[in-house]
Specification:
Layout lengths: L3 E2 L2 E2 L4 H13 L2 H20 L6 H10 L15 H15 L4 H12 L12 H15 L8 H10 L6 H13 L11 H8 L8 H6 L6
Antiparallel strand pairs: 1-2
């Protein structure tokens, strides 16, 4: 059995071990530790909110949520969230998991950068986003006792300059597909990191469409 971190157990099944190995081998240390913290902060949020959730599905969603940024999975022109969701779906189908579970994890990954929606979905979907929001944006930071935050970061360090490095990781995974950022928070990343990027304006798309009125 794996030791608990801040009272949270990392799933100890054969499937979970395969997820850990796959993501560790595919991702950078930055993304691997970030993804594990997303699981831990998501699970802690679930405990605090007294939600019933499947830890293994939450773990798969958290660990795959940024795999679409990695060298192995970022060559499409889809949103990186969709690439990650598709990678998780393929992994889960190889392991013959139920389609309902696959759809749940797909939604958790695909929606994790779409504010205002995940919290209204199933707990696993909501908690992947909650974990991301805590680790990247610091949302609900003060809802976590100091000891919980310290134990999570001790086990899976943020490292030096995490804020700048995670933004750079986003940019590296999206620079070649700028159109995929339209209407998303990802546009802010390329606006900061890519001098050649030109943000598409939603109203301009409407006003310059082929419709006369």
């Amino acid at each position: 059995m794996t030791p608990s971190i801040a009272g949270i157990q990392i799933p100890d099944s054969k499937l979970a071990h395969e997820v850990t190995e796959l993501v560790r081998d595919t991702s950078t240390p930055l993304l691997f530790h970030h993804s594990t913290r997303v699981y831990l902060f998501g699970a802690l949020t679930g405990q605090r909110r007294e939600l019933t959730f499947d830890p293994e599905l939450l773990y798969i969603g958290a660990m795959f949520h940024d795999i679409g940024l990695t060298e192995a999975h970022r060559h499409s022109h889809e949103r990186f969230e969709v690439d990650g969701a598709n990678a998780a779906r393929d992994f889960m189908r190889r392991h013959q998991l139920p389609e309902a579970s696959i759809e749940l994890v797909w939604d958790a990954i695909a929606l994790h950068t779409t504010p205002g929606i995940p919290q209204h979905k199933k707990p696993e979907v909501a908690l992947v986003t909650a974990g991301v929001e805590m680790d990247v944006l610091g949302l609900a930071y003060e809802a976590f006792p100091d000891a919980q935050r310290e134990q999570v970061v001790a086990a899976h360090p943020r490292g030096l300059h995490f804020k700048q490095n995670i933004i750079q990781a986003f940019a590296d995974g999206m620079r070649h597909r700028p159109d995929s950022t339209f209407g998303t928070v990802n546009a802010d990343v390329l606006a900061l990191k890519d001098p050649a990027y030109r943000r598409v304006n939603f109203c301009d798309v409407i006003l310059h469409s082929h419709w006369h009125e």
